Amino acid sequence: MDIASIIKSRARETYDLHRQYVNPQLVRVLEVLGFNRNYTSAKGARLIDENGREVLDFLSGFGVFGIGRNHPLVAQVLRDMMETGSPSMVQMDVGIVSGLLAESLARIAPGDLESVFFTNSGTEGVEGALKFARQATKKTKVVYCDRAFHGLTLGALSVNGTEEFRERNEPLLPGCVPVPFNDLGALESALSDRDVAAFIVEPIQGKGVFIPDDDYLPGVRRLCDKYGALLIADEVQTGLGRTGRMFAVNHWDVVPDLLVVSKALSGGYIPVGAIITRREIYSKVFDSMDRCFAHSNTFGQNNLAMAAGLATLHVIEQDNLVERSARMGKFLINGLEELAGRYELLHEIRGKGLMIGIQFGAPESFTLKTGWKLLHKMNGDLFCQMITIPLLEKHDILTQVAGHGIDTVKILPPLIIDNADADCFLEAMDKVLKDAHKFPSSAWTTIKNLGLRTAKTA
Q1: Domain 72-318: which CATH class?
Q2: Which cofactor does it need (predicted)?
């Protein structure tokens, strides 16, 4: 079986195959937006489409490709791992590679988090963390934040604060209570009956890149201790250097009780995730020999995933990518703030490291305000496509909106980007914003027509 030849000979069928066998609605979305590039190769911070055009990837698979795409060291480690012929997933045994990765994660985790359970994804990590918290505390209630995103399986969905994902799935897990993000008073009220197993929170919310006040997470830690609830930090997107620290909680010197990681740990090759927790909590779940499988999975400790995780952590540390993320993030944020001073549609820049939200808002000038109101009356999610579409179409830069119902574009570049990449993005944003500030213009007409086509085909 020559997989390279098969892919090459049938590459032009990609969208037809997905339309017929996978997700035709996603294909429609990509075609309407002009995002159907049919990428054929990738390296580092760039994707290459079937026409040979290079695209600067400022989405990085929603944060998966922290070390860039197709990193040669990780690829070599995976080849070496396969060539060892070592046993994997014996189940009635434990493996050296998973032990080594657990040791490495415990070494970089904050505080006394030293017990590791491996998962296949972020949402599975959240599911496991919720189970661990409920079993360890013998309580069932869980508190979560409005606008939170923790995954789409039913348990994780029960602590999602985004209504568009929850609809059609009710009733969800009982005893899950929402509170506003960044509101210590609301959290204390929710915890005050001492019947809460855990509070789960993204240190920086992914849907919109909302950053808490400096006293919020320390206050959360204090309240969880006061009322006997465990603190779960969902670092699936924010972890492993994304925010300019190894973990986002490090910005506030907060040690959670359970920390969930995934995405970037994979190196972009093999799905992998982990729950990192305190031994005391772990021991309350796996508290006897007959409960050694109190929580388990089939593929969590497979050797390729464990090797990918080890290689990824090696690259992050060897190439100083955490420091690089902080430095390049500051460079981009400063550049975007300078643009915000010149363009009235650009209201706010939020971010830490290379997790940045670009917030747009209603303009002051009458003509632009007319266009803004027209688009939002037509479709509340339409405006940001006037930024993301030309970034890709005219400047070969891939970005996307940060979530439904918020006029925010989020960028998650690979941690390996350099000043030239950042300058390329800022120059492109300058040109796109300049076009967006002309009304009427072809940019506004294009987006209006997009909205009309979307409404007709919905």
Answers
A1: alpha beta
A2: pyridoxal 5'-phosphate
